[in-house]
Amino acid sequence: MCGIAGMFGGVDERVLSRMRQRLVHRGPDGSGTAVLGHAGLTSTRLSLLDFETGSQPMRGRTGQPVLVYNGELYNHQALRSRLEARGVRFEGRSDTEVVLRAFEHEGLRCVEELEGMYAFAATDGEQLWLARDAFGIKPLLYALVDGGRRLVFASELKALLEEPAVPRQLDRASLFEWSTLHNVLGDKTFFHAVRELPAGGTLTVRRGPEGVLQLEQGRHGGTRPVELPTEPEALVEALLSRLRASVEGQRVADHAVGVFLSGGLDSSLLTALLTAQGDSPVHTFTAAESVDHPDVRASRELAALLGTEHHEYLFSSERLVRALSETIVTLEAPMEASLVESAAPHIRGHVKTVLCGDGADELFAGYAVHASPEPWVRSSMETYNRLIRTRRVAPEECRETKAVLSTLSTREPQVLREAVHRFFLDSPLRYSHLRVWDHGSMAHGLEVRVPFLDTRVRDLALALPWSWRLRGETRKVLLREVARRVLPASIAEHIIQRPKLAAPSAVAGASEQLRRLAETLVPAEHHEGHPFGHYCARPIDLLRLDLFILLFVGRGGRLPEGFRTEDLYGAYREELLAALARAAG
Fold it and tell me: Can you list the positions of beta strands (E) in 127-279?
């Protein structure tokens, strides 16, 4: 696991060096830089496989292409065998070299064979190629600068903003989407000039006439047809087989692999599958605000039954509130604290890699909105109409939100359920959940793997009839049946029938304290004259957005030493106003 960055169309090695330094937290085990023709690539490395020969940037047999790679390729051994059968020789055991050799032989077509989470960049000096995994688990951002004559890219916004030519103007369409749908749609980011390579996306960059870059976008990793068994038992076995294969592939590392265990259905199922496959003890980790939280009790009981080395981390609401500014710098978005970034340093003291159950709810319809989507759609429409009534919204900034809500405005229940299911799989999963898991953990050099986000599991999940997703009040029907096969009998029904606690429940106390803090901190007159105030319905929304603007528009993702949120509208008021003016353009 690594952090990657680079530029094409002209290389400034000083900027490239600064970009690499901003990514050290993602890869504390090594770093490197390569310049070839019109391209410069750099990388920081967290070594999980083959420390000796897996260094990056990695060069092809003739010195090119040069590749930097962030991620884990779970089918690298099978792909290596296929390449060796074609006469390809390998020098080490790293999955980075497998990606390089596959790219040497097949170009970007190789991404169709990759199963894993990754983002990579390759160049021969005359062209640049970027690619991202099918779910968008690993981040990759880019921006065109200097009149379209140069492109810069990086794993994180903090590194990208080391290029001084990247404009700091905010994207109003993204803010509109954030306000109405609580997500940013498509390839947009909060910065107008910065784009995110889409999940399953590729980008080929060439120099055109007079040095202006030409960009060619591509897609890969599309859903494959699945012939579902007709017998219930066979269907349960089909999903169980795919989940076992995914966990088997994702537990491979030269170091111990643990599990983020909440005691809920998804993480409990993963823990049971992992412990059944390995000989060495599995580390499990539970984080909550209180020892009385239901997750703590359920996780402790399951860990004892499975014989894991169990660790509990408790954090006070006050600590999470104090960490709001640090959280925004870590997550690179105006978000509230989660327990991921708080627990990650402690987990990193035991393992370099943990599995988590993210993606199961999106794939198998585990949220309340899947069973009853109308209240969520109605709330989103109300917010949309409120913003339109302000008369401060240009038509182009609400276009994509309007299209999404139009799709969700159907009165046909089955069509609505399907549209909501796809929306939550395509947008909130990537923007909210995967961002928290990746940025929150990698800020401390910890890798989080997501076994449910395997294309084979996805293909089966998306082929399911709704009767295997929802039955009355029961959600994730098929996954519950799989859990009955795997979990210890004495606790299986308790875990399967546990009421779902959304992840924010673990930090509910901190969220309430933040809400009250914002109501006392944000001056009323500041909200009224704010260039982006109409996007923020509550003081807490404006507080988070102002912190993001100060820290990223004003300071490029750097937290001032000794900074306190309480000082934002006091000691930092003038700096905030200057950043707001820059963000508004």
Answer: 127-132, 141-145, 150-154, 194-196, 201-207, 213-219, 257-260
* 469 neighbors 477 (Cβ within 8 angstroms): yes
Local structure of 474: helix, strand or coil:
strand
**Helix, strand, coil % in the chain, rounded to nearest 5:** 50, 15, 35
User: How many whole angstroms separate alpha carbon 355 and alpha carbon 278?
Assistant: 14
Tell me the sheet residues that pair with 123: 66, 128
pLDDT digits (tens, 9 = 90+) for 410-459: 889 999 999 999 999 999 999 989 999 999 999 998 999 999 999 999 99
Residue 121 near residue 153 (C-beta atoms within 8 A): yes
Residue 384 tokens read as 């949309």
> 450-461: b or e for each residue (b if 16 or more CB lie within 10 Å)?
bbbbbbbbbebb
DSSP symbol at 424: H
Residue in 273, 257, 249, 270 with CA at minimum distance from that of residue 72: 249
426: tokens are 């395509």
C-alpha 37/C-alpha 39 separation (Å) is 6
Cβ–Cβ < 8 Å for 363, 462: yes
Phi–psi pair at 428, nearest 5 degrees: -60, -35
The encoded tokens of residue 507 equal: 């930090």
Architecture of domain 232-368+437-500: 3-Layer(aba) Sandwich (3.40)
Residue ranges, CATH 3.60.20.10, the chain: 2-219
CB 154 within 8 A of CB 196: no
What's the number of CA atoms in the CB half-sphere (13 Å) around residue 194? 30
CB 452 within 8 A of CB 361: no
CA separation for the pair 384, 401 (Å, rounded)? 8
Q: Contact at 8 Å (CB) between 321 and 389?
A: no
The answer to whether 367 and 361 are in contact (CB under 8 A) is yes
Written as six digits, the tokens of 98 are 């497998």
The CATH label, of 3.60.20.10, 1.10.10.10, 1.10.3720.10, 1.20.1250.20, for the domain at 2-219 is: 3.60.20.10
Tracing tokens 């990698």 back to the chain, one arrives at 442
Q: Which of 159, 198, 149 is nearest to 41 (CA)?
A: 159
Q: What type of residue sits at position 285?
A: F
From CA 101, how far away is CA 118, in angstroms rounded? 16
Comma-separated ranges of CATH 3.40.50.620 domains in the chain = 232-368+437-500
Contact 1, 72 (CB under 8 A): yes
Averaged pLDDT, 124-142? 97
Tokens of 216: 């060619």
298 vs 310: CA distance, rounded Å: 12
Q: What is the pLDDT of residues 2-38, one digit of tens each?
A: 899 999 999 999 999 999 999 999 977 778 999 999 9
For residue range 518-567, what is the model confidence (pLDDT) as tens digits?
Answer: 999 999 899 888 999 999 999 999 999 999 999 999 999 999 999 999 99
Which strands, in side-by-side order, build the sheet including 201-207? 58-59, 66-73, 116-123, 127-132, 201-207, 213-219
Cβ–Cβ contacts within 10 Å for residue 36, how many? 18
Site of tokens 């159950």: 357
Residue that is written with structure tokens 């084979």 in the block: 456
pTM, whole model, 2 decimals? 0.95
